[in-house]
Design a protein that fits this description.
about 240 residues; alpha+beta; four-stranded mixed sheet; 7 helices; elongated; disordered C terminus; DUF4191; DUF4191 domain-containing protein; transmembrane helix
Length: about 240
């Protein structure tokens, strides 16, 4: 009984949190898409109305109305999710680090490392490793990114000769990939590596290090509150 009571209380606490999150998502989406409420409501009404009309035609209005309600709710959720995602990408477009945020949500099987290369102008290259090989995702000025990508490829070539390398420049110009299409573009890449090969490539790249791990530590006393990295040893 006590366990059941604890479960019910946790579910009750979670529901307000979910509703609050949905409300917050709706408010954020409405700032970029003022018609989101009307569109979602119209989808629900039309879907329910169609099934209700079919129910009267076949003399099963109650059954079809229940089915129509469930499918209308599902359709509304799908439409709202897509418009919310589109609004989020619109707000992220052009923001530093936006591509890294998308890479973190590409899906299972991908290992991402943000900011493996960067220049003084804050043009940055991120790295993702999966069954399609290594994908270098760059954001910033296209002209400057070419040399940054070439340098990163040259550095990796000494370690991962047998792994295909793809490069993507995020942007809206010719030959670039819009931020909202970055995830689908990566998922469409042909899978040529096995799981163990992906693990081996990741291990070799981690051994090579990246921009953050190669960044020199300041001399003198360690700043207050700063922790030693895992595996580090003091002398």
């Amino acid at each position: 009984m006590a366990r059941k009571a604890n479960t019910d209380s946790s579910d009750a606490a979670a529901n307000p949190g979910r509703l609050k999150q949905i409300a917050l998502t709706y408010k954020m989406t409405r700032k970029a898409d003022s018609k989101v409420g009307l569109v979602v409501a119209a989808v629900g009404i039309v879907t329910f109305g169609v099934f209700l009309a079919i129910g009267f035609l076949i003399d099963h209005p109650i059954y079809l109305s229940i089915l129509g309600f469930l499918l209308a709710f599902l359709a509304m959720a799908i439409v709202f999710g897509r418009r919310a995602e589109r609004a989020a990408f619109g707000q992220m477009e052009g923001q530093p680090g936006a591509a890294a945020a998308v890479l973190d949500n590409v899906g299972r099987g991908w290992s991402t490392t943000p900011a493996v290369a960067m220049n003084r102008s804050q043009d940055v290259v991120h790295r993702a490793v999966g069954k399609a090989g290594i994908v270098l995702v760059a954001e910033g000025n296209p002209n400057r990114l070419k040399s940054l990508l070439a340098a990163e490829k040259k550095k990796m070539a000494r370690i991962v000769l047998d792994v295909p390398v793809h490069d993507i420049i995020v942007g809206t110009g010719e030959g670039q990939v819009p931020l909202k299409k970055l995830r689908t573009t990566m998922l469409k890449l042909p899978r040529v590596l096995t799981g163990p090969q992906v693990t081996a490539a990741n291990d070799r790249l981690r051994a090579m290090g990246d921009l953050m791990s190669n960044m020199p530590l300041p001399k003198g006393p360690m700043p207050k509150g700063m922790r030693m990295p895992r595996g580090g040893k003091t002398r």
